Every structure is written in C-alpha cells, then in structure tokens.
Automatic annotation (TrEMBL):
Domain Aldehyde dehydrogenase: 46-486
A Pfam family reported for this protein in Swiss-Prot or TrEMBL: Aldedh
PANTHER family: ALDEHYDE DEHYDROGENASE-RELATED (PTHR11699)
Origin organism lineage: Bacteria, Pseudomonadati, Bacteroidota, Cytophagia, Cytophagales
Protein species of origin: Hymenobacter tibetensis
Protein name per UniProt: Aldehyde dehydrogenase family protein
UniProt entry keywords in alphabetical sequence: Oxidoreductase
Entry keyword annotation includes Oxidoreductase: yes
C-alpha cells in the first residue's frame, strides 16, 4: 500500500487552525498580511510560495515595496521611546504572557514549519520549543543581565530561513524584553506563515513588534541603513553580510552579523570510531542546512581507511524522505534523518557545486540514493538530495572555500599537524570547529590554533542556548557577540564594553 499524508499534518487543516487562532493575520480572501503600524494590513505584491516537501502551493508572500516598508520602520521607531519607559516588571509580564500563549500553539507552529521549510516534525518542534524555553530563561534572569543598561531603540532583524523560531523569534523577544522596539523581515525562502502566527500572539500581548515581507534588494535601505534603525541583527550568507558590513561602516550603529564559514572537524591519532559515528549521524540534522554544520573533515592520512568505513556505515543508513508520510492514518510521523533542502533551486546549486568538484579533480567516495518507499508515487522530489561525499577536493574547486549548506561532505587528507591546522582554517574564520584525538592534551593545544569561535574536543559544538555565548572569528562574524548576557548587552547601552568581532578590535569573552 502506498503511503499517505498524515491527517495530523495535512496543510489545509493546519491553515484552518491558524485562521481560528489568529484571524487578524488574514485578509478577507485568505491571504497573509504584513504586521505594520500596530495592525495586520498591506497584502503587498503577491509572490507564490511552494512547499519544499512536495512542491504544493502554500500561499502567497505579501511582498512590500520600499515606500511601504518605510512607513513600517517609522512607526516602529515611534514605539521605541514609550516602550523603553515601560517598567521592566510590565515588560516581563507581557513577554511571559506571550510565551504562555505560544506554548498553546507549539504543535501547530511545528507542523507549519514542516511544510514551509521542510523540517521533520521533531526538528520543527525543537525549533519553537527552544525559542520559548530560551526566552523563559531570559525572563527569569533579566534583572542581573540588564542592571542599569538602557535599550538602544529600534532593532532591525534580517535572518535566514532555517531557524525561524529559535534564532529569529527568540532574538526578537529578548530584544523587546530589554526595552527595544523591533522590526523583522520574514525570510523570503520560508517561514512567513509560522512567523505570522507567533508575531500575531506577540502583538496581542502588547509587544512592539513589526513583521514585514519583501525582497532584500527592495527593503535593504530602510531595514539596514535608515537613520531610524538603531541596531541590526543579521543572519545569512557571507556575500550579503559583507555588503551590509560595508554599508554600516560609515554609520555608527550597533550590529550583529552572523555569516557562513567552512566549519571543519580535524581527526589526528584517533581510535574512537563508534563515538565518531554517532557524531556523523547527528551532524546530518536538517540535511546540514545549519550555520554550525560540519561540512569538512580533515583526516590524518593513515586513519583514512577507518574513517571511510565509519563514514559509510553511519551515512548509508540515514533515511531521507517526505516527513509528512505515514502508512496508516493513526501512525506516528516518520523518524527521518532529514527531508528536502529548502527548495529546488538550492538542490540544483548543490548539484552544480558537486559537478564542479568532480570536474576539477575531486574523487567521490559516497553517493546516496533516495528510497522510493519514503515518498508518494509521482510526488515532486525536486528539492530532495541524498548525502554525498568527496575526497581530495582541489583548491581550484569552488566547494573548497565554500559552505555548501546542504548534504555534501568533503574530506581532506593530511600528513602533518601543520597541514591539519592550515586546512581547518581554510575559510579565514568559522563559527564552530572540532578536533578529535586520543591525546586530549594535544587536541586542546591544537584547538587554540583553529580560527573558530567554538572548538569542540572529541565532540561537536553548536550555537547553544541560554547562558552559552555565540559568535564567530574572522569573516564568519562581524559586530557584537550574542548569547547569554551578551545578547542583552548587544541591544543595550551601558558603561561596559561590548564584546565582539569589530574592524578595530576582537574582544572575546573569558569563557566560550
């Protein structure tokens, strides 16, 4: 019997639930609106949005032009002074009310995220759950972190699509808790429906939040450079990040620019292959569409046979398929390693990078295949790609210096420790890295030579939650670091220096 879409995640049913929960988000003809000037309005220019899961149309994004977005920015700025004067206890009460209402919509939010950006239910649930529990930690600890610090004013948020809740919504609610008003742009590649649900709840609770949709090229001037913007939080690619950094160099405003880098895992004098296998499987969460995904393995040459055997056994059993499918209506949702990449365009870009690597001399060592039984017969599978891996990636290959942001791994073999360190630092800075060795003292010493903000010893590192700080070195990050107390400090003014990666200085926290 062919599989079927689980009734619990059928999209039309989810949309009906959202309309019942937040009817103000929708126009009379059922289109999602923008949240600006304190209310849901402005359908903008409709842009068709399809799900990466099966190519089905989910709705239309309400794309705004520059002039309309400017109205949104000016209103959001006008809200800043009143909100900054609001007593901290009242701000805490309203953010807590928002979290309480968000908890009632966790299931719905997670299932909308599945359809919008192709996450499995488990990862969709984790995204919204981490956002809520992370902000709860800030509510419980805000007095000690805030002290006598004062809010900056209006904070603008431009984030990538991969973590709409645990990165974007989380940052927004902490920024508001610290006394700022906020404007956020919905990621163009996905997340506008689930974000509209959560922002509607935040606005109902009296929080000064604005949510707009539009192309980066159209809205960049007003969301980045406009005088009304007091701080910019950006998560995205290095190309756009560099352009924004250049644009901000002549204006003195606070910014946090999280960009990509090649996150590497170095292996030297190592024997815990079962432990590595578990890390390899974990590393494929969401098809490596994460800023902290490890995509380059730098391996001591003599260990390559054991590494290859471990890699094959770990990766060949990963299940990649449609995350909404079940065998019977009451069955639980499938336990998959990952589903589609964000869209067919990104899948084609992965193919191009892979083909370029082969053409320039790389050797393929693994090419996974999709399991027909994990899809509906005849469904659109243009956004699905199984894992692939290459060894001996040459420097003339485009992939050598670039994060693929998808399920392609590359392995570089080295003969000397100096080579290992050099290859691990190939992208001039990264967010995370790891060094694996039976000699932990050697690993800890070598880790200090790796240009990554966080370096794991025999383990993966991640963005982290609550008190854990986050940033990047080199070209992977510009501006203030975030996470823990640093996130509050990044969006407030006080007598304490802001820690971060600035053009004039690198100011690191004592513990990472």
């Amino acid at each position: 019997m062919p599989k079927l879409i689980s009734p619990q995640v059928e999209f039309s049913g989810l949309l009906s639930q959202m309309k019942a929960a937040t009817p103000e988000v929708f126009s009379p003809d059922g289109k999602v609106l923008n949240l600006m000037e304190g209310r849901w309005q402005e359908a903008g220019t409709p842009r068709e949005f399809v799900s990466p899961i099966d190519g089905s149309e989910l709705g239309v994004m309400p794309m705004l032009n520059r002039e309309t977005a400017l109205r949104a920015v000016e209103f959001a700025k006008a809200e800043a002074s009143t909100w900054a004067a609001t007593d901290l206890d009242e701000r805490k009460r309203r953010v807590q009310d928002c979290l309480n209402q968000l908890r009632e919509q966790v299931e719905l939010t997670a299932k909308l995220i599945m359809w919008e950006i192709g996450k499995t239910y488990k990862l969709g649930f984790t995204d919204i759950d981490r956002a809520i529990e992370g902000v709860q930690w800030y509510i419980d600890n805000i007095e000690g972190m805030l002290g006598q610090r004062k809010p900056l004013g209006l904070v603008s948020n431009i984030a990538s699509w991969n973590y709409p809740m645990s990165v974007l919504l989380h940052a927004v609610l902490v920024q508001v808790l610290a006394g700022n008003s906020v404007i956020a742009k919905t990621p163009t590649d996905g997340g506008f429906i689930s974000l509209s649900l959560t922002f509607a709840i935040a606005r109902r609770c009296g929080l000064p939040v604005t949510l707009v949709s539009g192309s980066g090229g159209e809205l960049s001037d007003v969301l980045v450079k406009h005088d009304a913007i007091d701080c910019l939080s950006f998560v995205g690619g290095r190309y756009n990040g560099r352009n924004i950094a250049d644009a901000l160099s002549s204006v003195h405003k606070r910014y946090m620019l999280e960009m990509e880098g090649v996150n590497t895992y170095g292996i030297w004098d190592y024997s815990d292959w079962n432990g590595l296998a578990d890390q390899l499987k974990k590393g494929y969460d969401y098809g490596k569409q994460r800023c902290t995904a490890y995509v380059r393995f730098v391996v001591e040459r003599r260990l390559f046979p054991q590494f290859l055997e471990t890699y094959w056994e770990a990766i060949r059993n990963l299940k990649v398929g449609n995350p909404t499918l079940v065998d019977a209506p009451n069955d639980p949702l499938p336990d998959l390693a990952f589903g589609p990449v964000i869209n067919a365009t990104q899948a084609q870009e992965l193919d191009r990078l892979y083909a370029n690597a082969l053409k320039t001399g790389a050797t393929p060592i693994y090419e996974g295949k999709l399991d027909e039984s994990l899809f509906l017969p005849g469904q659109d599978r243009s956004a699905y790609r199984a894992p692939r891996a290459l060894v001996n990636l040459p420097r003339q290959s485009e992939l050598y210096f670039k994060e693929p942001f998808g399920p392609i791994d590359s392995i570089v073999l080295v003969d000397r420790v100096e080579e290992l360190v050099g290859e691990m630092n190939i992208s001039n800075g990264a967010l995370v890295a790891a060094v694996a060795s039976d000699d932990q003292k050697w690993a800890a010493r070598t880790a200090k030579e790796v240009r990554a903000f966080k370096v794991g010893i025999n383990k993966l590192r991640s963005r982290g939650d609550r008190e854990e700080v986050f940033g990047g070195l080199g070209e992977s990050w510009k501006g203030a670091f975030v996470g823990g107390a640093l996130l509050v400090e990044a969006v407030t003014e006080g007598d304490k220096p802001i820690l971060g990666n600035f053009a004039e200085a690198l100011l690191l926290p004592e513990r990472i």
